[in-house]
Design brief:
This protein is an alpha/beta fold. It has 6 helices and 6 strands. Strands 1, 2, 3, 4, 5 and 6 form a 6-stranded parallel sheet that branches. It is globular. It binds flavin mononucleotide (FMN). The site of flavin mononucleotide has 16 residues, from helix 1.
């Protein structure tokens, strides 16, 4: 089985975030050969091009290095006001800047949980648009749209809904296949 190293991050900074917990669920559902490291975005400052011009802040540098080292990314994003939260956009903005933007050419799987009825579909479509400019390659299917998240997690924050777990598992398998294909490692 091919080794795939994935860097995941959640677009929510709150302690009991459904999206952070969805990422935790992914780490329980990894296909053989895949490893998942998660990066906490709370250390990433707001983008400032004056700061970038004198050198990336330490946390940003570390984030960029972990992305560069990864075969693929896994993003769990909430939907804020029909789009991605500033936390996600801000992190991508830092990682998109030269030299050698680490997002360039990176395969990415997207998933999201919301308490509403549409499971972050509008945020995910916006994220896909951002991926175009960054030259990232999102997996198209399956779409992992966890709607009414409060019904899918138990009180300890574990994803207990089997359908949701199945979608996450399928997304990770699709990410493996997509990454191998983009890297020319498919057999
Ligand atoms: C600023 C803000 C805007 C939101 N906008 C939306 C929205 O457009 N669509 C939606 O389904 N939920 C929206 N919500 C509700 C989120 O889905 C809900 O807070 C969810 O739990 C956030 O993800 P988290 O649990 O990972 O923090 C919004 C929440 C906040 C705080």
């Amino acid at each position: 089985m091919a080794e795939i190293y994935v860097l995941g991050f959640s677009g929510s900074l709150r302690k009991n975030s459904y999206n952070t917990r969805l990422l935790a669920a992914a780490s329980e559902l990894l296909p053989e050969g895949m490893t998942l490291e998660t990066f906490d975005l709370s250390s990433i400052p707001l983008y400032n091009d004056d700061v970038r011009a004198v050198g990336f802040p330490k946390s940003v540098q570390r984030f960029r290095e972990r992305i560069a080292a990864a075969d693929a990314l896994l993003i769990a994003t909430p939907e804020y006001n029909y789009s991605i939260p500033g936390v996600v956009k801000n992190a991508i903005d830092w990682a998109s800047r030269p030299p050698d933007p680490p997002l360039n050419g990176k395969p990415v799987a997207i998933m999201g949980a919301s308490t509403g009825n549409f499971g972050t579909v509008r945020a995910q479509m916006h994220l896909r648009q951002v991926c175009v400019f960054c030259n990232m390659f999102p997996v198209n299917r399956p779409e992992v749209l966890v709607m009414r998240a409060q019904e899918k997690f138990d009180t300890d924050g574990r994803v207990v809904d089997e359908t949701t777990r199945g979608f996450v598992r399928d997304l990770l398998i699709a990410l493996t296949n997509w990454t191998l294909r983009l890297q020319g490692r498919s057999t």
